[in-house]
Amino acid sequence: MRFGELDEATERNIIKLLxxxxxxxxIFLSEADVQSYLYSLLINDACFINNCPVVKMNTPxxxxxxxxxxxxxxxx
Length: 76
Fold this sequence. Notes:
By secondary structure, the protein is an alpha+beta fold. The chain has one domain. About 50% of the residues lie in helices and about 15% in strands. The protein has three helices and two strands; from the N terminus they run αααββ. It has a two-stranded antiparallel sheet. Strand 1 (about 55-60) and strand 2 (about 60-65) form a beta hairpin. The N and C termini lie far apart (about 35 Å).
């Protein structure tokens, strides 16, 4: 994946986020809701699906895949 593709995918998903926010502002109750929705859009974008680091695990129910995502921790 080239940086330009990553940049375009990020911009495309930010635009989707803003469109959804303007149409349905009541579904975003906090800044964390906005961040979670953006992460969801990014994770499900084809550009990221094909190039995302994935952890493969064997669980009692079978194989599973877990996407690695960025998380911010608030430190007081």
